[in-house]
């Protein structure tokens, strides 16, 4: 159940939002508000839902082919296989216990699933499970550190980084790179470290040794917001432009709790405005509802906006225009994710880091995911997905060039007490 509360920081940050909603059974339809009339009929579209989803998939295929230098047929094979690979990786993460060293999609070697193992005996179990799942090409790699250890290192380092970043002009950032079996600790390239940050880097090297790799990043991380217009009629879904006080974000997946519907969005969007509107084609700006709960800080970047009139808004488990979402997946390095944003539209990229600590201008976030997808101001809150599976809520990216930071969907749903609305 969504907890009715609002959290505001002393310094509000203008950023773009995301919508998420879910429900398997719809509440009773409400009467349309006076003066607004019945909800508009869906816009004529001669394409079937299958055709629409196929067109979206082809965008992903083109991105894989471009990134990896492979023919379209091979790119399509990798895209089709990825959901099964993610499912197997999740199962192996539970079954292998301490011997599990993480999993990733090795795009440089045929896009095959690779599983890190800390002992040779675990390899046989991986091969058996992979064969049963129809993924016999799955590889194993002997690694020094178990994934559980990397998570512990990441958590300890993240707390130190958060303290060291307070008052600093440029922040340290961290992230687990499973393909390298390390936690990456990065500072802004060319920028001097504060004494507190230098102490953290030295402490990390002394304490964790080879489990930490010190590096740099090229551009500062920032949330994404904008102040432009964009119009779309019901149904309410992920990928729409949403507005508050002149700022624009993007809706993510629809969710539900009991008989109530909620539109998920980035927490930094809810921080700058309580009421959220959608600019419709037929009726101008129409209010969706208010922010029921949000988090923007150490524990992530997500929010739930109450859908006050679901009978009019007709929330659906779709990504614009009509891609159905049927469930959720965890993030794995090397896998592809996509988003539909109200500024840059449909873009895709590969996951590069998980459990990342991100430095924004006035706060540090933990537990985030980085990918190479492009985004821009106004895309905040976009639903991040792969095929028919939700992965998260777009939070931000570098202040120059491509790169996307997203909130993992599992933590957002759990923190808000809502469930995904199936398409």
Would you report the number of β strands? 24
- Mean of the pLDDT scores? 88
Helix count, per DSSP? Answer: 8
Q: What's the level 1 CATH class of the largest domain?
A: Mainly Beta
Any idea what the shape is? globular
Measured distance between first and last alpha carbons: 21 Å
- The assigned CATH architecture of the largest domain is Beta Barrel
Main sheet: strand order: 9-8-12-13-14-11-10-24
Oligomer: single chain
Characteristic key phrases:
423 residues; alpha+beta; Thrombin, subunit H; GMP Synthetase, Chain A, domain 3; 2 domains; six-stranded antiparallel β-barrel; 24 strands; 25% helix
What does this structure look like?
This protein has 423 residues and is of the alpha+beta class. The chain folds into 2 domains: 1-43 and 171-423, Beta Barrel (Thrombin, subunit H); 52-142, GMP Synthetase, Chain A, domain 3 (2-Layer Sandwich), CATH 3.30.300. It is 25% helix and 33% strand. It contains 8 helices and 24 strands. It has helices at 49-68, 72-95, 121-132, 147-165, 195-208, 267-272, 310-313, 409-416, and strands spanning 100-106, 112-117, 139-142, 173-177, 182-188, 212-217, 221-223, 241-244, 247-250, 254-257, 260-265, 275-280, 284-297, 300-306, 318-319, 323-324, 327-328, 336-341, 345-360, 363-371, 383-386, 389-398, 404-408, 419-420. Strands 9-8-12-13-14-11-10-24 form an 8-stranded antiparallel beta sheet. α1 crosses α2 and α4 packs antiparallel against α5 (195-208). The two termini are 21 Å apart. Mean pLDDT is 88; it is low at 4-35.
């Amino acid at each position: 159940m969504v907890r009715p509360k609002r959290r505001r920081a002393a310094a509000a940050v203008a950023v773009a939002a995301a919508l998420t909603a879910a429900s398997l059974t719809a509440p009773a339809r409400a009467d349309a508000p006076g003066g607004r009339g019945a909800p508009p009929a869906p816009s004529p579209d001669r394409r079937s839902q299958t055709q629409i989803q196929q067109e979206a998939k082809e965008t992903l295929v083109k991105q894989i082919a471009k990134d990896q230098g492979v023919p379209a047929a091979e790119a399509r094979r990798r895209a089709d296989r990825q959901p099964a690979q993610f499912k197997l990786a999740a199962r192996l993460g539970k079954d292998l216990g301490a011997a599990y060293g993480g999993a990733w999609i090795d795009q440089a070697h045929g896009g095959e699933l690779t599983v890190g193992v800390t002992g040779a005996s675990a390899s046989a179990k991986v091969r058996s499970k992979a064969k049963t799942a129809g993924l016999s090409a799955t590889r194993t790699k002997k690694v020094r550190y178990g994934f559980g250890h990397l998570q512990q290192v990441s958590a300890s380092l993240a707390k130190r980084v958060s303290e060291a970043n307070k008052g600093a002009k440029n922040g340290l950032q961290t992230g687990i790179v499973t393909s390298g079996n390390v936690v990456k600790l990065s500072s802004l390239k060319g920028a001097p470290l504060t004494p507190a940050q230098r102490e953290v880097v030295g402490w990390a090297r002394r304490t964790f040794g080879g489990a930490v790799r010190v590096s740099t990043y090229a551009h500062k991380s920032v949330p994404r917001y904008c102040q432009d217009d964009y119009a779309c009629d019901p149904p309410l879904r992920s990928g729409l432009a949403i507005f508050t006080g002149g700022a624009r974000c993007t809706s993510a997946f629809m969710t539900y709790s009991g008989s109530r519907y909620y539109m998920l969005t980035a927490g930094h969007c809810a921080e700058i405005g309580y009421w959220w509107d959608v600019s419709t084609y037929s009726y101008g700006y129409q209010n969706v509802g208010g922010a029921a709960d949000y988090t923007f800080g150490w524990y992530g970047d997500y929010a739930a906006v109450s859908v006050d009139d679901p009978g009019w808004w007709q929330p659906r488990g779709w990504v614009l225009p009509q891609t159905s979402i049927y469930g959720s997946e965890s993030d794995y390095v090397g896998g592809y994710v996509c988003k539909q944003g109200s500024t840059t539209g449909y873009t895709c990229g590969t996951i590069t880091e998980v459990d990342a600590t991100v430095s924004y201008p006035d706060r540090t976030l933990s537990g985030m995911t980085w990918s190479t997808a492009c985004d821009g101001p106004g895309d905040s809150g976009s639903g991040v997905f792969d095929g028919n599976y939700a992965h998260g809520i777009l939070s931000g990216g570098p202040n120059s060039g491509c790169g996307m930071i997203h909130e993992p969907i599992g933590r957002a749903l759990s923190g808000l007490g809502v469930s995904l609305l199936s398409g």
